[in-house]
Amino acid sequence: MVSNRTRPFAMNEIREFIEKITPMSEADWAFFSSKLQRVALKKNSILLQAGEVEHYLSFITQGIVRFYIEGEENDLTFGFLFEKEFVTGYDSFLTQRPSDYQIETLTDSDLWRITRADLEEVYQKTEHGNLIGRKMAEKMFLVKSKREMALLSKSAEERYLDLFSERPQLLKQIPLNYIASYIGVTPQALSRIRSRIT
């Protein structure tokens, strides 16, 4: 559900996040923020359907989303994103080809999104637009790289502890079967890991 209501504190969060990348002039911020559209979504809403093209880059001001591939029996969950993070099907966003995976909200969520065409206009018409785009891309790459390295070099228990240490409160809102899939174990094995830890 798209809403035209504004939430000044949410826009402030976005600006603070952007300012950590590079300062923006008032004119550049006004241009960039004018392109943002608020989307309020209920729990289990689909942000990106497999087979569809990604047209948006979104900033999460409230909520949790997951990336997954649908399976006949169980989904393969391969990513979570939380508040104050960007979310997009980035490969589809860049290539404008259909996505191989889906993105859905795990909680009621608020996002502020910008279209690919509008982002290109921000790159062209603002002083630091290209730098912001590059830094956002680097951040998303680092998240992906960290996930891949964890799968290759860490045990399931270490992967669980990493996830838990990063977002202990928010993790309680994620169903255990999704967490199990994310760290590469069965729900039963995750229960044993959790028992050992506690």
Automatic annotation (TrEMBL):
Give start-end ranges for the coiled-coil region(s): none
InterPro entries hit by this protein? cNMP-bd_dom, cNMP-bd_dom_sf, RmlC-like_jellyroll
One Pfam family name from the record? Answer: cNMP_binding
Q: Which residues form the Cyclic nucleotide-binding domain?
A: 36-126
What protein name applies here? Answer: CRP-like cAMP-binding protein
Q: Which lineage? A: Bacteria, Pseudomonadati, Bacteroidota, Cytophagia, Cytophagales
